[in-house]
Amino acid sequence: xxxxxxxxxxxxxxxxxxxxxxxxxxxxxxxxxxxxxxxxxxxxxxxxxxxxxxxxxxxxxxxxxxxxxxxxxxxxxxxxxxxxxxxxxxxxxxxxxxxxxxxxxxxxxxxxxxxxxxxxxxxxxxxxxxxxxxxxxxxxxxxxxxxxxxxxxxxxxxxxxxxxxxxxxxxxxxx
Length: 175
Hints:
A hairpin with a 4-residue loop joins strand 1 (45-48) and strand 2 (53-55). This protein is 37% helix and 19% strand. The longest helix is centred in the middle third of the chain and has 16 residues, at 74-89. The chain contains six helices and seven strands. A seven-stranded mixed β-sheet has the order 2-1-5-4-3-6-7, with helices on one face.
């Protein structure tokens, strides 16, 4: 995927276009190549719901399915029961289900309460809004789902939502 992205970029640079647009294209290319399929995932370490820290490095050896969400996000909340079903379906598979909250720092207690009340399992992390997670992964909207392989490489930076896995019957493609 990165090779395809580079070939498109190189082709675009061959056109005679204004330098301003070349600069803009180059900036967007640099951003996209860092999260392209097959790229090494950006690292992270955030507080988990139990008060400890969890890093991407500590999750290596299993696939990692990341749900980027916030407590105020209606579409994010709709995914919760589907995520629970997905986690149950793959409970014996080599995969970590990681939910990363991008709520405002002031809403951390709201996040912790929601995790408890909804009996959300998997790895529950609080990144907060003022973090590098959204920037590193180029998150433009939530919920966003990301699939990472056992070595920490991005398989899909825009993976299907749990609801989509259930409704489309593509469950076996997750791992």
